[in-house]
Amino acid sequence: MRTINVEQITAEVAQMCKEAAYYLPQDVYEALKKGRETEESPVGCDVLDQIIRNSEIARAEDRPICQDTGMTIVFLEIGQDLHIEGGNLTDAINAGVAKGYVEGYLRKSVVAEPLFNRVNTQNNTPAIIYTKIVDGDKLKIEVTLKGFGSENKSGIKMLVPADGVEGVKKAVLDIIQHASCNPCPPMVVGVGIGGTMDQAAYLSKRALMRPTNVRNAHPDYANLEGELLEMINKTGIGPQLGGTTSALAVNIEWGPTHIAGLPVAVTICCHAMRHSERVL
Asked: Where is the Fe-S hydro-lyase tartrate dehydratase alpha-type catalytic domain (predicted)?
């Protein structure tokens, strides 16, 4: 039985929050550069130049890529042979988020109650935490900072099996076209197919954690990712002010579902696709 103290987890999460806010992942940076090479709109080229330059300044100066430093989502894979000591795991994660946001001078955007008394918690907690028990004695932590300009334009469609592949394509495109330029494109699009309504939404979030240059292992879903990316880039949404680089990638994750169902969830992320990963 291997042991980890919660203080180590808190320290790692704090650093991960700062890294995610400051350093655009290399795959996303390269996708932006590739989009700049193929962009057909002069205005779109100018916008992409500014986005790329902004990410370079943020990395060089340890500054947030965007003023909306998001709501923190944490995915945990906990080895069943791992013992966590010294306190509560959820409390340790939230302590790390608070530490990272305060020390990193990141904007605190979380309100404690959503409707009647929207008071800011002042440290961006609580985080949204998903846990999965796996084999082994390691702890894998993935942190993503989810801005709400794009989150607000995400959506779920509850299809029926008869809708099939074409119905899925239409559902995704409807959500993207309704979003238009509001999510600060070029976007990274996470699609969850299957499960229940909530599971599809979870799968769409997990899809965003996959690098933009890695396709789904299932060839049919990999082909669908390519088709959807091509369709989205033909909408003319472009990089905020029109063009041919509306999305950098479409990532799909899928799961088993009921014989009567075909849930489809789309989580849109802006070009500031911020995440960090550790294995302890």
From this structure: 11-277
Q: In what order do the strands lie in the sheet with 71-79?
A: 128-134, 71-79, 139-146, 275-279
Biggest distance spanned by C-alpha atoms of the chain: 59
Please name the residue that has the structure tokens 């702890």: 139
How far the first Cα of the chain sits from its last, in Å, is 14
Q: Which tokens go with 113?
A: 């109650």
Q: To which residue do tokens 């082909």 refer?
A: 223
* CATH number, domain 149-273, options 1.20.1270, 3.30.1330, 3.40.50, 3.90.226: 3.30.1330
Torsional sign, CA 172, 185, 126, 85 = positive
Residues 81 and 139 sit within 8 Å (Cβ to Cβ): no
Distances from the Cα of 195 to the Cα of 41, 65, 109, 212, 256, angstroms: 39, 34, 30, 23, 5
Q: What is the pLDDT of residues 31-69, one digit of tens each?
A: 999 999 999 999 999 999 999 999 999 999 999 999 999
Taking the C-alpha atoms of 28, 20, 3 and 8 in order, what is their torsion angle to the nearest 10 degrees?
160
